[in-house]
Specification:
Largest sheet: 8 strands, mixed
Number of domains: 1
Radius of gyration: 20 Å
CATH superfamily: Alkaline Phosphatase, subunit A
Bound molecules: zinc ion
CATH architecture: 3-Layer(aba) Sandwich
Number of helices: 14
Strand content: 5-15%
Shape: globular
CATH class: Alpha Beta
Strand order of the largest sheet: 4-3-5-1-6-7-2-8
Distance between the termini: 24 Å
Length: 398
């Protein structure tokens, strides 16, 4: 069920900030109204200080299936025809790297997407507790009764996701996918399998307000899903949206990573991104209040990507665009001393110099929405992955 997004916490606070600004201009003595002044103080603490980044009302977290980082960078930097103009725009106007990392032990689709949505490694890192990893290693179409909870790490009875945190906090959520096997997320977070909401008001157990999975053609393309996504954003203004574009992976398996067909698939995704940015910028509720995150589940070489020790398979991009994001910045320049560019290396989950991982994108999305981390997550669980020079916004006050 779709909730009234106008009542969401970030939206309410943003409205308050606007009210505060108007009142300040009219020189109204708001301190004489104690209850209002208290709310104003909270709002100012969130958004009024130059030392903090204000939460936004909307985040679109995108995974482009099989988007290898160095190949994307080369396409952007040798682009003469504007085929990759929207990726170039995200890089120019946002903060990015082409040298982020997948999971350490797996460079296949479902396990990495589960990491993005749960903030957990795929398998148990050496020396760490057996409750850290999500443990779902399969990549085929799941059985009808399979969930992450009954088919993942047997030491966990429930594996929480970004959808849980956003939905339990009263935000609206959506998942737009383009491979049938993504139904595992609907199975895991629907009204039957989702956890009871014990955060504030009861928003129910169905954590994904709108689930849509659509693709067509050979090699497969997300084009039919894209149309629904644009309409969904325009009509519902979801606070948290996860999007999966399959095109480069499908072209890679058929024609090879870096082949002309693969490049055309990346160009198709560039077109999706252009439509998405245009939709955001033409909508008064989304414009200036939406951050877009783009990363990938894995790279690839030849016609496959299943070797986690291979740089071509584990090197992926990570781009962040929107209000509060430092334009033209390298994400690795913004994050020291918490993240380190791994060069061509493959740091594990015990390294003292962690890289940016796709598995950290979920907790980044939640931070940008003003929310805390996914329960049980360990990747970017401190939410200290920064997208600008300023200190991370304080959390826990709302
Ligand atoms: Zn694949």
């Amino acid at each position: 069920m779709l909730k009234n997004v106008a009542l969401s916490v970030p939206n309410a606070l943003r409205a308050l900030r606007t009210l505060v600004a108007r009142n300040a201009m009219r020189r109204i003595a708001i301190s004489s109204r104690p209850a209002f002044a208290l709310i104003v103080a909270v709002a100012l603490r969130w958004g009024g200080s130059a030392a903090t980044a204000a939460p936004v009302g909307h985040v679109v977290q995108i995974s482009v299936d099989g988007l290898r980082g160095d190949l994307l960078q080369a396409l952007i930097e040798s682009d003469r025809a504007g085929d990759y103009a929207n990726f170039a725009r995200l890089r120019r106007e946002g903060a990015s790297t082409f040298n982020a990392r997948t999971d350490y032990t797996h460079t296949i689709t479902l396990p990495n997407h589960i990491s993005m949505l749960t903030g957990r490694p795929v398998t148990q890192p050496a020396g760490q507790p057996d409750t850290v990893h999500h443990g779902y290693r399969a990549n085929a179409m799941p059985a009808p009764d399979a969930t992450l909870h009954n088919s993942g790490n047997p030491h966990l009875s429930y594996i929480a996701s970004t959808f849980d945190v956003a939905h339990d906090n009263g935000l609206s959520t959506a998942l737009y996918a383009s491979k049938p096997k993504f139904v595992i997320f609907e199975h895991s977070y629907n009204a039957a399998a989702g956890a009871p909401d014990r955060t504030g008001a009861d928003n129910g157990r169905d954590k994904i307000d709108l689930y849509l999975n659509r693709s067509s053609g050979t090699p497969g393309t997300a084009a039919p899903m894209q149309a629904a996504l644009l309409a969904g954003l325009r009509n519902h203004h979801f606070n948290y949206t996860f999007v999966h574009y399959r095109d480069p992976d499908s072209a890679g398996h058929r024609s090879g990573w870096g082949s002309p067909a693969w490049n055309r698939a990346v160009k198709a995704v560039d077109g999706y991104l252009g439509e998405l940015l245009a939709t955001i910028e033409s909508d008064p509720l989304l414009h200036g209040d939406t951050v877009v995150i783009v990363t990938s589940d894995h790279g690839g070489s030849g016609r496959s990507h299943g070797t986690p020790s291979l740089p071509a398979d584990y090197t992926i991009p990570f781009l962040v665009w929107g209000p509060g994001v430092k334009a033209g910045a390298d994400l690795y320049d913004l994050v020291p001393p918490t993240r380190f560019d791994p060069g061509s290396g493959r740091p594990d989950y015990n390294t003292a110099r962690p890289p940016l991982r796709n598995g950290g994108s979920g907790n980044l999305a939640l931070k940008l929405l003003g929310l805390g981390p996914i329960p049980g997550s360990t990747i970017n669980a401190a939410q200290d992955l920064r997208v600008n020079d300023r200190a991370p916004a304080p959390r826990g006050e709302h």
